[in-house]
Amino acid sequence: EKDGYPHFMLKEIHEQPTALRNTLKDRIIGDTVDLDNMNITADYLKDIKNISIVACGTAYNAGLVGKELIEGLLRIPVEVSVASEFRYRNPLVDDKTLVIVVSQSGETADTLAALRESKRRGSKVLAITNVKGSSVAREADFIFQTIAGPEIAVASTKAYSTMLLGFYLITLYFGQLLGKEMPKELYSGLKELPILADKIIIETEKQIESLIKPFEGWGDSFFIGRGLDWHVAEEGSLKLKEISYIHAEAYAAGELKHGTLALIEKDIPVIALATQKDVYEKTVSNIKEVKAREGYVIALAQEGDTEIGKSVDQVLAIPKVPSLLTPILTVLPLQIISYYVATSRGCDVDKPRNLAKSVTVE
Ligand code: F6R
């Protein structure tokens, strides 16, 4: 059932182009996203004052990207909460709030409790979920189904990338319902992602020896980036921690100098994401701060970036897409690096210590 792969995680990493293709299927027609089967009406949406995204772990990290998309393109205020905090906080949600819960399994206890609390307060709930007929799917008012197929490995991979895709499609669809002009290049860009995902997976595996070498012997590491890159850095650091047990911190690159730089020592592995055009120069200057302290920097940059190589130790080129679409591509090398770092240390990546696939306790 592993199709010849040594682990489910590696199989699922490689299934992402297909998972993305299946999740896109029949949902973009020309320059229009069709999610009519969610049954959300324009009248309901026009009446909404804010959106609250609630989830745990990797699904929460997907929500961080979701917030940027919705706020950036729709200008609706969005809050993102960890489900275990949300439910005990007297959350600010009511009948003018759309709550979006994100859960691969649809059975995570904290997420389910947050869903119920939101409904009790009068909010309608949209679930982005992968498992059909799950508790979350049954209790939500609206559903966006990711078509990732069963995810067996504890570390989430294809669920994350398809959740991200869900947020793109939902944002564009809401924009259409609200009569807002959505950037046309996003529609064609989304359709290209499955092919580009395949490309970056192959490219990363080609370079894998040199990409994992810097982690040898290290118990600490950093992931940095700005904007969307920062949120993907969060997911990369979670992935590395949970399966390799290497301590990893994700930082907004501009925040390093407010304390964290003290931890940058000679040769410590730092993965820097630098794909966001509008903050590119700023990110590069943060990378230089790390290099000045002799950290070992692997940069993820957009293809055609001939500058960044001068400031870092290694570069992995990400196929060119609009800045807003990079997360689905940048996360792939981070998953692959985590996988190979972990297996090179002899870790059982499919069953990391102390973790369960579906957390049904609070
Ligand atoms: C990380 C991971 C967990 C889950 C989290 C939520 O790789 O798998 O962080 O993302 O437990 O699970 P779901 O999405 O099933 O609610």
From TrEMBL:
Its EC number is 2.6.1.16. One of its GO terms (cellular component) is cytosol. The keyword Repeat applies. It is found in: Cytoplasm. Residues 41-180, 211-352 form the SIS domain. Keywords: Aminotransferase, Cytoplasm, Glutamine amidotransferase, Repeat, Transferase. GO terms for biological process: carbohydrate metabolic process; fructose 6-phosphate metabolic process; protein N-linked glycosylation; UDP-N-acetylglucosamine metabolic process. It is an enzyme of class 2 (transferase). It catalyses: D-fructose 6-phosphate + L-glutamine = D-glucosamine 6-phosphate + L-glutamate. GO terms for molecular function: carbohydrate derivative binding; glutamine-fructose-6-phosphate transaminase (isomerizing) activity. The active site is at K357 (for fru-6p isomerization activity). Catalyzes the first step in hexosamine metabolism, converting fructose-6P into glucosamine-6P using glutamine as a nitrogen source. Homodimer. This is Glutamine--fructose-6-phosphate aminotransferase [isomerizing]. It comes from Alkalicella caledoniensis. The chain holds residues 243 to 604 of 604 of the full protein.
